[in-house]
Design goal:
homodimer, about 120 residues, alpha+beta, Arc Repressor Mutant, subunit A, two-stranded antiparallel sheet, 5 helices, elongated
């Protein structure tokens, strides 16, 4: 009975206080797709406050903000990815896609060690 | 002013309840090096109970246990990696090593987006 291959999840550690992983990346993607922090938070099943904290953290992890208010106030109005935000999302997803492919053999080896013989 | 390149951390998700990441892997390595759960827990700055829980979880994530008591009781006696434990540790570290190298370009791109211009 073949098990599905393990899924690789990545986290980039910049320093002791700054890192980016699947949670923040999924949030950026939800924000790109919905155009609002409120809607992105709902998609991610997290509070607006939590989403805002993660975005604030991301905005302070890079030289330029990753997310900018697009129109109206912060709560009601829209928000969108900046060029830096789109670039970070793109680089992360590219590494993720390549990694899952590059390490398919090793991930299958791990999966085989899980299968009851 | 060049920043150091981001460090990649990996987590393998097997299913909704089973995963293996840097914490469990470092614990396995500490256990291999110290030969005891108590000493490995101390190295990892975690309680014996927490180390034991992680090991119990690992032992139930694979077909064979990854850690076995080597002599004496569970608390006082030693513990060691089984063949499966050594294999899992080896596969994980191999992926980690290769990933850091394979994605050096992308990780530098991310790092550059962090540098204040």
């Amino acid at each position: 009975m073949p098990s599905p291959t393990a899924t690789l999840r990545l986290r980039m550690i910049f320093d002791s206080r700054h890192a980016i992983g699947p949670g923040k990346i999924d949030l950026l993607e939800a924000l790109r797709d919905t155009g609002s922090i409120t809607a992105a938070a709902r998609t991610m099943r997290m509070s607006y406050k939590r989403a805002w904290q993660l975005i604030d953290d991301l905005n302070h992890s890079f030289a330029e903000p990753l997310v900018a208010a697009s129109k109206g106030g912060e709560h009601g109005g829209g928000a969108e990815l900046t060029d830096t935000g789109r670039r970070v999302l793109e680089i992360y997803r590219s590494i993720e896609r390549k990694a899952q492919k590059s390490f398919a053999v090793e991930l299958r080896q791990l999966t085989r060690l899980r299968a009851r013989s």
